[in-house]
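Hey, weird one. I pasted the ATP-binding cassette domain-containing protein sequence into the form twice and got a warning about non-standard characters only the second time. First submission, copied straight from the form history:
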Amino acid sequence: MRGLTFGYPAVAPLFSEWNASFGPGELVAITGASGRGKSTLLYLMALMVRPAAGEIRFRGERVDQLPDSERAHLRAESVGFVFQDATLDASRTVLDNVLESCLYRGVSRGASIQHARDLLSRFGVEQRAEHRPGQISGGQAQRIALCRALMNDPGILFADEPTGNLDRASADTVLAAFRERAAAGSTVIVATHDPSLVTECDRTMAL
């Protein structure tokens, strides 16, 4: 990010001339008070929101000005995102929610089912595969959202308060997954208030 500037209408800018860089293999915590813009920053970096000024580069190429279709393709191929409220589709089963990213990458459902079930099993929610989001707990929804984000083995993984609804054992499992992604060369960026998670990250950026 170079000179990143963004704000909502009638509100003072959240970011002004903000610069930062993140490298492969890093696990980074973004911290700060509520309302400071942690979630918005993740949305900007994940190309879900366009900055008012500045630029975003990925693997040396500028990506913030790409057409929407190309931004969507880049997200499908290279980005995983865990939303704070999980954001699962209530009309679809847990398994279909996890398989969602495959549709955008043009990968067949049949070729991906076993990978999806393996992820659900790893995070202890495999028995919920045929349930719908309204039939599961908040903590289960958060783990399922992580499964969905990991389906494409993302080069960049963003997570917004990923341990907020989890007990300590589940949070430790999630942290292990983050470390595994970083060890595989991915960049992992988490917005969090969880001090246990912050202390395990390679570095912290406070907003």
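That's the output from the first submission. The warning seems to come from a hidden character in my clipboard, not from the data itself. The chain has a mean pLDDT of 92.
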